[in-house]
Amino acid sequence: MFALNRYSFRQLLxxxxxxxxxxxxxxxxxxxxxxEGLLRQSAEGARLAVAQxxxxxxxxxxxxxMERAARQYLVLGDPSLRQRFDEAAREANDALAxxxxxxxxxxxxxxxxxxxxxxxxxxxGTSGDPSREAVLTTAFRExxxxxxxxAERVRLANEGRxxxxxxxxxxxxxDLGRQMLAAIGVAIxxxxxxxxxxxxxLKRLETAVVxxxxxxxxxxxxxxxxxxxRALGRRLExxxxxxxxxxxxxxxxxxxxxxELKTPLAALREGVALLEEEVAGRLSDGQREVARILxxxxxxxxxxxxxxxxxxxxxxxxxxLVRRPTALKALIEELIAQQRLxxxxxxxxxxxxxxxxxxxxxxxxxxxxxxxxxxxxxRFSPAGATIAWTVSHLPGRACIDVVxxxxxxxxxxxxxxxxxxxxxxxxxxxxxxxxxxxxxxxHEYVTAHGxxxxxxxxxxxxxxxxELPHAR
Length: 472
Hints:
Elements: H1 9-76, H2 79-98, H3 106-123, H4 131-213, H5 227-276, H6 285-317, E1 324-327, H7 328-338, H8 340-345, E2 349-354, E3 358-361, H9 363-380, E4 386-394, E5 397-403, H10 438-448, E6 452-456, E7 463-469
Parallel strand pairs: 2-4
Antiparallel strand pairs: 1-3, 4-5, 5-7, 6-7
Helix pairs in contact: 1-2, 1-4, 3-4, 4-5, 5-6, 7-9, 9-10
């Protein structure tokens, strides 16, 4: 297998197809040769059977011709009749000789020869002997019986040969069937072996791409296999290193920016506080209003910087999941208990129903995501409303649904609801305006788990649906 790594995936795939095609072609060609041989044997057997049947028929006809010529010769004594008898006898003996392939029993040949000798003796006997005709009649009757026995022997020999040929055809057909089944079986095994061996590096590539998509940048990528697949693996490793470098640069940039912003922002807040305390002198009403505006905007700016850092920290932590088997319904019930004071203060009802499912998740990070959804539902739900959690199961996936009875999400906001720092049109009047990163963090953590989260359009309240893999 190591030597095969010097070839490309396409070359190995072509070799595999050619090897399987050659195997099936060889089996088919051997079957064709076997079939042609059997057909030749069948044609030769049929030709021989026809020839032997015709020879046996000729032997019987020559016997009749000899009897006619012999009887006429006894009556007329014409030499031409004797010559005609001799010619018929010679042709009959030739026919008998051609039937040697039938392997006639010696007694039939001896009977034919003795009959011919008796006939010859009567033809050479004294003319006028009244017993000659009776003896000749008896001899020809025995000769005819011998010819009939020879014809029957030829028929039986042809039938035996036909049976042997049929048995050979059946044996050849069975052998051909076994060869084809064996060839097909070997081809299937080879196709499976080649498929598994060639699919293994593709599976590694898929795993590497999924790891990059899930931001698992700390896992080195090393793909073994055909040369072109290994080259692609090296490209993916370069991409992993590049992404890791960009991620590190991003983290350093945000840390630097946050530090650079916090220092002057702290000085600005202290300066505004000193102005409000009139340390530098008494302020007029207009100056006091300006100081208040400065203080409010400084607080807003500090909050935005902290939100930015929090979202960046969440995005960074999403790449470092610590998965463990976790009971999803128990996790949701724990989150509900943690926020009991908030939803009881608004006289809300929060319940969790569904199946007892387990999933391979990072309970801390997914807990943050689900906690954000619960906080969001509490903020937007009117007093006395119900927030319903449901855990359900799909093949290999766990589903989590949370439905509230709040105002829902405006149609214009649905496409952007998971964007960082985006705040929708509908905002609760009795609560501070949100920062717009809560749902973004939900999306980051769920996506990091290989799952998906979406807002279903079946209001009037908000209905968030989450699907997570690796569930049982």
